[in-house]
Amino acid sequence: MKQSMVRFAQNFPKPRDLGEELLLIHDKVLAQKSPAFRTWSKQIKLRYAVDAGEGLKSVDMFPEHIAKIMALCENTSVKKLTVVVVGGGSVGDFGGFVASILKRGVRLVHLPSTWLAAIDSAHGGKTALNVGGAKNQIGTFYPASEIVLVKPLLFAQPPARTFEAFGELLKIALLHGGPLWAELSKEFEVNADTLWKYLSAAINAKYKIVNKDPEEKSGVRHALNLGHTLGHVLESYYELPHGIAINYGLEFALRWSVEKKIMAVGEFDKFQRQPVAAYLLSASADQLLDVKANALKEFRRLLLNDKKKTKSETLRFVFLKKPGQVSIQEVHVDDVLVEIIRQREEELNG
Ligand SMILES: NC(=O)c1ccc[n+]([C@@H]2O[C@H](COP(=O)([O-])OP(=O)(O)OC[C@H]3O[C@@H](n4cnc5c(N)ncnc54)[C@H](O)[C@@H]3O)[C@@H](O)[C@H]2O)c1
Ligand SMILES: [Zn+2]
Q1: Which of 68, 106, 164, 267 has its CA 20 to 30 A from that of 16?
Q2: Ligand 2: distance of its center to the CA of 226 in Å?
Q3: Looking at the structure, do residues 149 and 166 belong to the same domain, yes or no?
């Protein structure tokens, strides 16, 4: 798989540096949120504005979108076309998919506009659409030729989004260990400047994993699901933002790693003493305390729905030995539920 070029920019790039003929697919809100984007985007003739979110990724709406996009590109030589996608993860998944199938594939450039997209979803080449309400059921592996991280675009986000993205940054730092974890762990404050500071190291850490298993065949890439097993359940059940749910899922995974003696108690204590650990959310303190029996039944269904399911009732769970070392193990879905109850009781009993 080809490697994407990643570029950091203090300002929007010149359109002519992005490709010969451009089709801009962008999140509609950006024109209001970022005056700089509004001015810049007017230089590109072919523009397709979309409403971000899971609805955009719905396969039911896709025929309508692609017909409009084809009509827009009517007088363009497809060989020369570059699709430039500006938006968060949903716009990236949609726009990447469009680029991958338009005339069997045209050049793709991402300008991520959310921290989540900048740290995670714009990299690694996964595109996706949802089918019948189930997320990411179809898609392609189609890495962008180029990803440009435009500072003023990312800083146009409201501060609350910073904390949402922190869960993913923490995940990648824990997976990678080394200097990324050593430095991030000492941070007392998480804000846009913190994210910008660690963006390059976090992206490199993701590529280190993705490059070993670009199309998710060997299982190495599965490590990127650290915190995501319970995270996805909480995201659906409590309708939490993805990054917040992952933050909760990370604490669950760490505590389960200790319970299974995969992570030494001393290692977990060391983790908890780091300044940045104050930003970790405890699922058992905040989310799981009022879990009723019927919720557990729903959790079970959601866990088995998740695509990480292997055999009928088992799933692959990512445990952490220490920052930089994971252990991926098959667990039964009921083991996850038992652990949820155990962590909840541990919390209740102080
Ligand atoms: N392809 C992958 O590898 C991958 C990885 C993780 C997540 N995802 C996907 O990413 C999506 C979630 O990503 P997301 O949170 O970025 O989603 P999103 O695209 O829905 O954006 C979230 C919200 O932020 C707004 N927004 C975007 N840029 C903004 C800006 N600069 N200023 C202010 N508001 C802005 C959007 O309009 C939207 O309301 C999900 O669909 C998920 O499945 C994909
Ligand atoms: Zn994630």
Answers
A1: 68
A2: 9
A3: no
What total of structural domains would you count in the chain? 2
Walking along the chain (350 residues) 10 residues at a time, the average pLDDT comes out as: 89 97 98 95 98 97 98 91 98 98 96 97 96 90 98 94 93 97 95 96 95 90 96 92 94 98 97 93 84 87 73 90 97 96 89
Overall pTM > 0.70? yes
Q: Tell me: do 192 and 95 sit in the same domain.
A: no
CATH number of the domain that 135 lies in?
3.40.50.1970
* SS3 readout for the chain: CCCCEEEEECCCCCHHHCCCEEEEEEECCHHHHCHHHHHHHCCCCEEEEECCCCCCCEHHHHHHHHHHHHHHCCCCCHHHEEEEEEECHHHHHHHHHHHHHHHHCCEEEEEECCHHHHHHHCCCCECCEEECCEEEEECCECCCCEEEEEHHHHHCCCCHHHHHHHHHHHHHHHHHCHHHHHHHCCCCCCCHHHHHHHHHHHHHHHHHHHCCCCCCCCCHHHHHHCCHHHHHHHHHHCCCCHHHHHHHHHHHHHHHHHHCCCCCHHHHHHHHHCHHHHHCCCHHHHCCCCCCHHHHHHHHHHHHHCCCECCCCEEEEEEEEECCEEEEEEEEHHHHHHHHHHHHHHHHCC
* Structural domain harbouring 128: 5-155
CA of 168, nearest ligand number: 2
Whose atoms come closest to the Cα of 122: which ligand?
Answer: 1
